[in-house]
Amino acid sequence: MNKDLADIQINDLDSIDGSKLALKVNILSGEFTEWIKANASHIRRLVQQNGVILLRGLPIQGSRKLEKVLEMIFNKELLDYTYRSTPRTKMRGRIYTSSEYHPDETILLHNENAYSNKWPMNIAFFCIKKAEFGGTTPIADSRAVYDSIPIGVREEFEARNLLYVRNYGEIDLPWFEVFQTQSKTEVEAFCKKNHIQLEWKGKNGLRTKQINSACYFHPVTKEKLWFNQAHMFHTSSLREDVRKNLLNVVEYENLPRNVYYGDGSTIEDNIIHTIRNAYQENQISPGWTEGDLLLLDNMLYAHGRQPYKGSRKILTGMAGTMGIDNPELQLNENEVAK
Q1: Which of 55, 268, 116 is nearest to 66 (CA)?
Q2: Which of 77, 175, 236, 272 has the fewest Cβ atoms surrounding its Cβ within 10 A?
Q3: At 227, is the secondary structure helix, strand, or coil?
Q4: Global pTM?
Q5: Any bridge partners for residue 97, and if so which?
Q6: How many CB atoms lie within 10 A of CB 104?
Q7: What is the dihedral of CA 253, 255, 256, 259, to 10 degrees?
Q8: φ and ψ at 60, to 5 degrees?
Q9: Are 239 and 229 in contact (CB under 8 A)?
Q10: Is 4 helix (H, G, I), strand (E, B) or coil?
Q11: Could you give the CA distance from residue 266 to residue 65 in angstroms, rounded to a whole number?
Q12: What are the structural domains, with CATH classification, of the chain?
């Protein structure tokens, strides 16, 4: 049991898949409120130093309590989840269920909202109920992913940028769920503010296009990161049978989501396969135990979800907005971390 985290250092954490990661806490429910008040800053320090920490044995009851705990740890109000790409249920406060894709599906490793020009700096996952089988939340260090991708691929992506295309309708999430509004005027204002090209299609369809970078420097560590969702938006992320069935229904340009080089040219399947392999090579897979709280620097660590069987309930909250207009994301050679 660790009641005082003031002296806890990264080397004191338990290793998972060779990475210092976990800390058993096991605080009694009656002691928890005072414990989190006393230790929130120490937990925040560990996340800042390590990029990730898995606290085990926390008696957090309910989404409202979880929201308060995360706001103390991150020292910021939690964020609403807008411009979303996956179905979720909003709980009390600004706590959401984790992505509600079918349990048979794998959610690839990714950094939250890395397809956007704004994203949360911190994300947390709390285990209410672990799955009977599977359902882990693997993570991967974005620095290691960058280093694992061949230099030629990195240079191509960094030079050409990425064009994300989304078509909202009956096949994927409807636009009013993505943007969390029924107002087309509000969607248009959001897109204008965030440099997203917008085109209304038919009676109630929408297509958006947005160009973003493939890599950024971390604003604190100054390290180069692989930070995009090309491998998720690319059509090769679909099972071959699903891709063929979709293309029997819609034209290629009308697929629910796709990604191109910034000039609109096609990204080859084998390039995306190489990128997925880089994530796989750096994957860490901590298993869930009820009462686990996984805290991530969203730029330093990607996360995903493995298929599962049985009921599973993981809650999530996000804090701290970062965006492409922040000059710390673009550094010159003298400022790059060695």
Answers
A1: 55
A2: 77
A3: coil
A4: 0.93
A5: 315
A6: 9
A7: -60
A8: -90, 120
A9: no
A10: coil
A11: 46
A12: 10-140+285-324 (3.60.130.10), 145-277 (3.60.130.10)
Nearest CA-CA partner of 221 in 329, 146, 111: 329
pLDDT by position in tens, the chain (length 338): 567 899 999 999 999 999 999 999 978 888 999 999 999 999 999 999 999 999 999 999 999 999 999 999 999 999 988 765 666 677 888 999 987 778 999 999 999 999 999 999 999 999 999 999 999 999 999 999 999 999 999 999 999 999 999 999 777 778 888 888 899 999 999 999 999 999 998 888 899 999 999 999 999 999 999 999 999 999 998 888 888 888 888 888 888 899 999 999 999 999 999 999 999 999 999 999 999 999 999 999 999 999 999 999 999 999 999 998 888 887 555 555 54
Question: Pairing state of beta strands 52-56 and 293-297?
Answer: antiparallel
Indicate the angle between helix axes 269-281 and 151-160, nearest 10 degrees: 120
The two structure tokens encoding residue 44? 């925040």
Tokens in use for 245?
């069935």
The token duo for 212 is 């973003």
Complete DSSP assignment for 179-213: TT-S-HHHHHHHHHHTT-EEEEETTTEEEEEEEE-
Q: What is the Cα–Cα distance from 215 to 161, expressed in whole angstroms?
A: 9
Give me 280's structure tokens: 């796989």
> Could you give the angle at the alpha carbon of 197 between the alpha carbons of 195 and 200, nearest 5°?
140
Give the three-class secondary structure for 90: strand
